[in-house]
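Final report, Chapter 2: Outcomes

The project's central promise was a pipeline that accepts a single protein chain and returns its three-dimensional structure in a standardized token representation, suitable for archiving and comparison. That pipeline is now operational. To close this chapter, we reproduce one record exactly as it appears in the project archive, with the input sequence first and the structure output second.
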Amino acid sequence: LWFVNFRLFCYTFNYYLPMNTTKIIEAAKVGGEVIMKYFGQSLETTQKSTVADFRTKADVESENAILKILTPEFPEWNIISEENGEVKKGSEYTLVIDPLDGTNNFSLGIPNFTVSIAVIKSEEIIFGLIYLPVMNLLYFAEKGKGAFLSHQKLSVNKKSLLSNSSISIVSGYIGGYNFVSETTKRLNDQKAKRILTNWSPAFDFCLLASGKIEGIIHNNLELYDYAAGKLIAAEAGAIISSFKNETINDIEGKFIVSNGSPLHNSLIE
């Protein structure tokens, strides 16, 4: 049944999708199936950069399943993936893959984790997809054509006051604790409504694009953590800048993204 619905989805939204993105959707779904096979189990972890940064066999097997579908489909494209690293092929196109964003949530049995895949042309993100396997939710965007949750077009909300806004803070592992702690203190001093640290940054972009939260302060995560989400938020109407309110390119990892100028200015301050 899911396959029939998937084919119908791809046919219905072919106008919005560039050529071959149906394979990217298929790969994300398959990666999600691998993850769900292990969800709720006690899995051995392997440390990467820090104690908080680790992988499980669900991460590795999900990525392998995704690459098995996408590598033959896009044989000449570069690949940046969390577990296998970077494969340079001299192409102007790059596939960016996070096979399990929110590994810590996953390992604790918290159902807030995603599969994230983006396509970059040179330094421009042109397609992004985020899939939440527990809830079977598929968010995607193509550059210049809007952001969608399945068939529903997404839009940021219009809240403008920090006191009425929920703000997510995400940071890389190195120095991340101090950044999150200091930024949380500043937002509390300014009486922000709610401060989020969800441990799954990709889903935070989906929340912003859906009008559920109002802003994200993003401090130097890896490209695979934010590439798809950054485009989805932008195509839903979010604005993005450096911490100094300067224009930045798509692959810059230190930025503020929000639902609009009044709130954005508050976050810059």
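Archive annotation: The radius of gyration is 18 Å.
This record, like all others produced under the grant, will remain available to the consortium after the project formally closes.
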